[in-house]
Amino acid sequence: MKPATNQMFLNMKQRDPHQSEFHQAVQEFLFSIDKIIDDLPHITYHKVIERMIEPERAIMFRVPWINDDGILEINRGFRVQMNSALGPYKGGLRFHPSVNLSIIKFLAFEQTFKNSLTGLSLGGGKGGSDFNPKGKSDAEVMKFTQSFMTELQRHIGPHTDVPAGDIGVGGREIGFLYGQYKRLRNEFTGVLTGKSPSWGGSYIRPEATGYGLVYLAGAMLEEDKDTFEGKVALVSGSGNVAQYTIEKLIELQAKVITVSDSSGCIYDPDGINKEKLAYIKQLKNIQRGRIASYADTYPSSQYIAHNGSLDYNPIWNIKADLAFPCATQNEINAKDAHHLVENKIKLVAEGANMPTTIEGINIFLDNGVLFAPAKAANAGGVAVSGLEMAQNASRIQWSAKKVDDELLKIMKGIHKNISATAIRYSTKGNLVDGANIAGFLKVANAMIDQGYV
Q1: Dihedral over alpha carbons 66, 71, 74, 75 (to 10 degrees)
Q2: According to the model, what pLDDT value does residue 44 have?
Q3: What is the pLDDT of residues 107-141, one digit of tens each?
């Protein structure tokens, strides 16, 4: 990094020495800002960069609840309100044992620029808890979410901060959270997105992140005079994003051969068709089972358990044309990236947040792989959340087709924006720089206009 950005990075590490995920997100961002730092007026933009790295507000609270055995449990809750220059804080809630302040800060930081790229009036925030919904009864999840919202409700509102779902927070959790908010505040407002369409939610919201990911990847292929037809694709994860990424890829005639969860991955050389995808949805969404069961149901597939002694992920060592990491952060490291390059991967599009390490990203860019960074590629979810907010504000509901058409338009607009920004400030095709610089300039200019707040 250049002296100015390097000093900003060192100052941030000194303030927050143990927040490795946050360090990684800021470092990747500053590498891109290096391309324009010497051309920015020092007194204004340099200080704005430092301001962006510091959250406007970081809230941490305890969440007490009673389990089915009558025993008191205590979890931690978080909400990081990163930046409101463009609108109310917007970003999901994650319920997972790995959640800590570093992870929530990195997600909120990324969310700020992701939201700016959509063109909607949305600030950036993120929240969650180290609560693990896996293996919990519906009653336990309800008791936890009600306790969580009892504290969170004092910090959010339809014009202040509008949370949504993320890992571990699906339709069930959003319903419980919304019910408790309504109960405490005595109001029916658009304070959460990802709601059921029957009581204020938007059509296409569950599908939005996966569909949007494929729409942006499609724009990249189209620019390269190519299509999805006949392409072999690797998809990691088996939650919401992975499911709808697979669904849209099948529709566009690609062949998806993998799916995974935290225990291991499935390799299905015959491809995942609509019937198999329906089984995955039933397994993960209703039964809340493990993906290993897929191999028992479809014996032609192979289950590969994750081995903690391996320093690479087996899913990324399978030959394919396209890769869609949709599981979690840092699931593609340098060795995984080398495997994908050696197997002639053409495109990697990030469905999860920061799923590729900085070393892995550099390997893809150095080898001419079409690479779509998460803050652009998975913006479809928050884009439709923004559309859900618009529908809530006007008390109307759009058709699924209208929402899907708007989503496609937004994702194509994101690709056009970051592609043009990459050409202007960096290198053609470097969409990492394109996304970081385009997002930064929009947020920075708004902050300067508002008096650096």
Answers
A1: -70
A2: 81
A3: 999 999 999 999 999 999 999 999 999 999 999 99
Separation in Å, CA 400 to CA 14, 211, 212, 216, 239: 48, 13, 14, 19, 21
DSSP string across 368-421: T-EEE-HHHHTTHHHHHHHHHHHHHHHT----HHHHHHHHHHHHHHHHHHHHHH
Q: What is the CA radius of gyration of the chain?
A: 21
Rounded distance between C-alpha atoms, residue 422 and residue 222, angstroms? 17
The hierarchical CATH code for the domain 3-186 is 3.40.50.10860
Which distant-in-sequence residues (6+ apart) come within 8 Å of 434 by Cβ?
376, 417, 418, 419, 420, 421, 422, 423, 425, 426
Tokens standing for residue 232: 């072999």
With a cut of 70, say whether residue 307 has pLDDT above it.
no
- Residue 160, token pair as written in the block: 């202040």
Please tell me what DSSP assigns to residue 202: P
Residue 325 CB neighbours (<10 A): 31
Pairing type for strands 347-349 and 322-324 reads parallel
The residue behind tokens 């938007």 is 202
Cβ-contact 298, 268 below 8 angstroms: yes
Mean pLDDT, range 362-379, rounded to an integer: 98
Residue 307, C-beta contacts closer than 8 angstroms, at least 6 positions apart: none
Q: 10 Å Cβ neighbour count for 98?
A: 14
DSSP secondary structure code for residue 436 in this structure: H
Q: What's this model's pTM, rounded to 2 decimal places?
A: 0.95
The catalytically annotated residue of 114, 126, 231, 248 is 126
Mean per-residue pLDDT for 41-59?
90
Token couple for 1: 């990094």
Residue 364 near residue 346 (C-beta atoms within 8 A): no
Q: What is the pLDDT of residue 104?
A: 98
Angle between helices 171-185 and 138-152 in degrees, nearest 10: 50
Q: Which CATH architecture has domain 208-368?
A: 3-Layer(aba) Sandwich (3.40)
Extract long-range pairs of 336-341: CB within 8 Å, 24+ residues apart. Answer: 336/312, 336/360, 337/361, 337/363, 337/364, 338/363, 339/312, 340/316, 340/364, 340/369, 341/367, 341/369
Respond yes or no: is residue 442 known to be catalytic.
no
pLDDT of 211 over the 70 cut: yes
Q: Position of tokens 């990847």?
A: 217
**Which residues, listed in sequence order, are joined to residue 163 by a DSSP beta bridge?**
91
* DSSP, res 286: I
**How far apart are the C-alpha atoms of 403 and 383, rounded to whole Å?**
10
Mean residue pLDDT across the chain = 96
Domain ranges of the chain: 3-186, 208-368
